[in-house]
Amino acid sequence: MSSVTALSNDDIRDLYRELILDHARQPRHYGVLAGATHSAEGINPLCGDKLHLHLRVDDAGVVRDVAFEGSGCAISVASASLLTDEVLGLSRENALAKMEQVTGALRGEATADELGKLNALLGVREFPSRVKCASLAWHALSAALGGRRIASTEN
Amino acid sequence: MKPLKAESDDALLNVRDDFPALDQAIHGHPLVYLDSAASAQQPQAVIDAVANYQQSDHANVHRGVHTLSHRATEAYEGARDKLRAFINAASRSEIVLTSGTTESINLVAQSYGRPRLQRGDQVLITHLEHHSNIVPWQLVCEQTGAELIVAPINEDGSLDVERMIELMTEAVRIVAVGHVSNALGTVNPVRRIVDAAHECDIPVLVDGAQGVPHMAVDVQALGCDFYVFSGHKMFGPTGTGVLYGREALLDAMPPWKGGGDMILEVRFDGTVFNELPYKFEAGTPNIAGVIGLGAAVDYLKRVKLDRIAAHETALLAYLTQQLSEIDGLRLIGTAPDKASVQSFLVGDIHPHDLGTILDHQGIAIRTGHHCAMPVMQRFDIPGTARASLALYNDRDDVDRLVSAVRKAQEIFA
Ligand SMILES: Cc1ncc(COP(=O)(O)O)c(C=O)c1O
Predict the structure, then answer these.
(1) Are B50 and A28 contacting, i.e. CB atoms less than 8 angstroms apart?
(2) Is B24 near chain A, with CB under 8 Å?
(3) Measured between CB atoms, does B26 come within 8 Å of chain A?
(4) Which of A41, B146, B207, B357 could crosslink B133 through cysteines, CB 3.0-4.6 Å?
(5) Interface test with chain A among B350, B360, B366, B380, by most A beta carbons within 10 Å
(6) Phi, psi of B95 (to 5 degrees)
(7) Chain A closest-CA separation from residue B186 CA (Å)
C-alpha cells in the first residue's frame, strides 16, 4: 500500500472551488496594458504554463494598473486573476509583502491569516504537484517589480 | 510459474498480478496505471533478477578472475545475447548497451553524424519526434553547419510519407524517425521509409522507444541501420538502453566516450580501441539494470509479443471508442495505424487540471507536451491528456478512466 495520505473526497472540490473556477473562466484584467512600466513573464517549464504580467506603477510607487495574459491551467490562471485584483492600489512594498505572504502560505510555511479571498488558493496545499501553478503569477509579480523579465518555477 | 491465462472470449491477456506496483491504492482507489509510455512498471521477475544480482552476484564485469566477476559478466553478457535475439540483430557486436534512447541517439549523432556532416548537408526527421530525436540533431547541425529538415504530419497525426520521401534528396545524410509516436501513438511505416532512403543511399535511425514494448521488432526485416530503445519503457529498469547498429557502420564510427573497458591497449603514444560493441561502452556499465533488462526480455518472450500486440490493439480500440462517446472530448491523434496511446482534450479543461482530478481517483495519466512540443505546436494546443496502454491494462482500467473524466466534467461544469 502506498504511503500517500488518502485525500478526502472533498479535497478535489476544495481545490476547484467556485471562486477558483470563476476566476479561471473569466479572468479579471486579462489582456495587454498600454503604458505598462513593469512586465515579466512567468514560466512553468514542467507543464508549459506561461503568463505575462504587466503593471503600471506611478511616481509614488503605487500600482495603478495591472493586466495579464497567457495560457495555463485553471489554478495558475485563477491565481493570476486573483493577484490582479489584489495588487491594484498597493504600494510596491505592500505588493511584494503580499507576494511573500501568499507564496509562504502556499508552501505551508506561513499562516493563512488575512489572506481574504486568496484563501481560495490554499486548496493546492493538499496537491504538492500543483503548488507551483498557484505560485507562478506571484513569482512573475516579484520579477516585474524587481526589474527581471522572467520568473521560472524551476529556479 | 503460473500459466498465462487468456480470457477466452477475446484477445486480452491477464498478467496484472505479475506487476506488484499495480497492487496499491492511490488516494483510496485501486491504482489504474495509464502512463506506461512515460515509464512502464516492472514485473516481479525483473525486480527479482536485479535483487538476486545485488544480493549475491555483484562485482565488476570484464575484469576479474574471481567467481563473482565471472558471474556478473555472464549475466551481463547474457542479457546482451537476449537483446540481440529480441530484435533479431545479426550479431551481438551490433548491440551497444547505453543508458537509454537519449544516449543512443546522441551517440549516433556525434559519432556517425558529426564527422560526416558539413554545410549543405541535411538531416531529415519528422514532426512527430520526441525531443530526444530532435535536439541531438540540432546540436550536431549547429556543430557542422548542416541543416535539420522536418517531414510534415497530417491532421490525423499520421506522417506525410510521400512528402517525407520527396525530401530525401542528395543533400540528406541521415534520416531519423520514430517507430511509434509517444505523443499520438502513430505507427510510422518504417519499412517503406527505410526502402526509400536506401534507394538514395541514406542510412536510417529508428527511435524504437515506443516500438519494442508493444510489437515484435525484427531489425533485419525493417532494414534500418540503427534502432534505439530504452529499458524502462519495456518493463526493465531505468538507466538501460540499446543502440543497435549495422556492424559495418559501427565499425567505421569513432568511439564517443573514452575510458576503461573500451580499449585493448593504452599507451601515451596511442591507444588501441576495443572491438565492437565494447568500443562504445566506456566505464563500468549499469550491470544490475542490464541484467534486469535481460529478465524483461525473458518475460516478454514468455508472454509472447504477438499476444501483447493483439491485447493492446483490442484494448486501444475499446479505449478510443469509449473516449469518443464522451461529449466534448476531442481525440488528438487518430491515424489509421496506431499503437497503445490515445491523447485527448476534454472541453476547455486544461490537461493539467484533468491530470490532478484523475490522480485523485487513482488514475495515472500523463499530461502536458510529452516531450514533443512541435506536435503540440502543430495542433496549436498547450498539451494533451494522454492515456497509454501496456500489456497489464484491462477494460476495467478504461472504464475507470472514462468515469473519472466524466467526474472532471462535473467539477468543471
Ligand atoms: C519516442 C521516444 N523517444 C525517446 C524517448 C526518450 O527515452 P529516454 O528518456 O528513456 O532516453 C522517449 C521517452 O519518453 C520516447 O517516447
Answers:
(1) no
(2) yes
(3) yes
(4) B207
(5) B350
(6) -105, 100
(7) 23
CB B214 within 8 A of CB B308: yes
Please indicate whether, in this complex, the C-beta atoms of A7 and B27 are within 8 angstroms of each other: yes
Q: How far apart are CA A153 and CA B187, in angstroms?
A: 35
Total residue count of chain B as it appears in this document: 413
Q: H/E element holding B329? A: strand B329-332
* Average of per-residue pLDDT across B391-410: 97
Which numbered atom of ligand 1 lies nearest the CA of B129?
Answer: 1
| Residues B356, A11: C-beta atoms closer than 8 Å | no
CA distance A139 to chain B (A): 20
**Could you tell me the CA-to-CA distances from B48 to A34, B51, B235, B291, B304 in Å, in that order?**
64, 5, 13, 10, 20
Grid coordinates representing B174 are 541521415
Structurally, at CATH architecture level, domain A23-148 sits in Alpha-Beta Complex (3.90)
Chain A residues bordering chain B (beta-carbon distance below 8 Å)? 1-2, 4, 6-7, 11-13, 15-16, 21, 46-49, 71-75, 127, 129-130, 133
3-state SS of A16-72 is CCHHHHHHHHCCCCECCCCCCCEEEEEEECCCCEEEEEEEEECCCCEEEEEEEEEEC
**Cell numbers at A80, concatenated:** 493570476
Q: Whose CA is nearest to atom 12 of ligand 1?
A: B209
Q: Look at residue B5 in the predicted model and tell me its pLDDT.
A: 45
Average pLDDT score, chain B: 95
A12 to B411: CB separation less than 8 angstroms, yes or no: yes
Residue B61 CB–ligand 1 contact under 6 Å: no
Prior bond of B3 cis (ω within 30°) = no
Instruction: Just list the catalytic residues of B.
Output: 371
Contact flag B356-A1 (C-beta cutoff 8 Å): no
Asked if the C-beta of B406 comes within 8 angstroms of chain A's C-beta atoms, the answer is: no
Angstrom CA distances, B358 to A65, B231, B362, B386, B409, stand at: 38, 27, 7, 12, 11
Render each residue's pLDDT in chain A as its tens digit; 155 residues: 333 444 555 788 889 999 999 999 999 999 999 999 999 999 987 777 889 999 999 999 999 999 999 989 999 999 999 999 999 999 999 999 999 999 999 988 877 667 888 999 999 998 888 999 999 999 999 999 999 998 887 65
Q: Which of B2, B75, B63 is nearest to B290 (CA)?
A: B75
Matching residue, cell 501553478: A133
Beta bridge partners of A51: A42, A70
- Is CATH 1.10.10.10 the right assignment for the domain spanning B47-301? no
Helix (H, G, I), strand (E, B) or coil at A76: helix
Domains of chain B: which residue ranges?
5-30+305-412, 47-301
Q: What is the pTM of this model?
A: 0.92
Report the CATH superfamily, name and number, of domain B5-30+305-412. Aspartate Aminotransferase, domain 1 (3.90.1150.10)
* Secondary structure element (H or E) that encloses residue B149, with its range: strand B147-151
